């Protein structure tokens, strides 16, 4: 029996996925959570074979949670489930050492099959997404620039970002100016749009 935890913030979607997966004779949902911060505690408590994680979760996203799981409970394999088939997201997922990455609009049988394959040690990636990622351009932003832009995208102003990252306000503004220039954006809002479309945030 493959023990699975499921992280999805939309109650109806989570309920449907749990119901579908519980129909599989060899898959058992041992826990379901709705927020990224709840994933690692659930993994440590229930010791699942596979954690199926939505990429967009409140607080901590599925990729950050997957990295935590890999660091603290490497025996648990992670499968990212997303409605956002962006190449940059796949690259971030691979950097977080996830075992699988499939789209939410895949047939239910494909999800069950992906869970089985991931549990057996395979890496499962949506083939079209893999091709798109191969052709996509690399993220030109440094890790710090990406972090600053992500905070700005969440609505934080330069003084807030400076305080949280122990930087000066001027340094934060310099980072944002550099980001706008590197992405060929018109302004900060346009830079956020470009980075999101590419899956870099």
Automatic annotation (TrEMBL):
SUPFAM superfamilies given in the database record: C-terminal effector domain of the bipartite response regulators, CheY-like
Superkingdom: Bacteria
Residues recorded with modification 4-aspartylphosphate: 54
HTH luxR-type domain segment(s): 134-199
InterPro entries reported for this sequence: CheY-like_superfamily, Sig_transdc_resp-reg_C-effctor, Sig_transdc_resp-reg_receiver, Tscrpt_reg_LuxR_C, WalR-like
Keywords: DNA-binding, Phosphoprotein
Response regulatory domain residues: 3-119
CDD domains xref list: LuxR_C_like
Gene3D superfamilies with a match to the protein in the record: 3.40.50.2300
Protein name stated in the entry: Response regulator transcription factor
Organism name: Streptomyces chengmaiensis
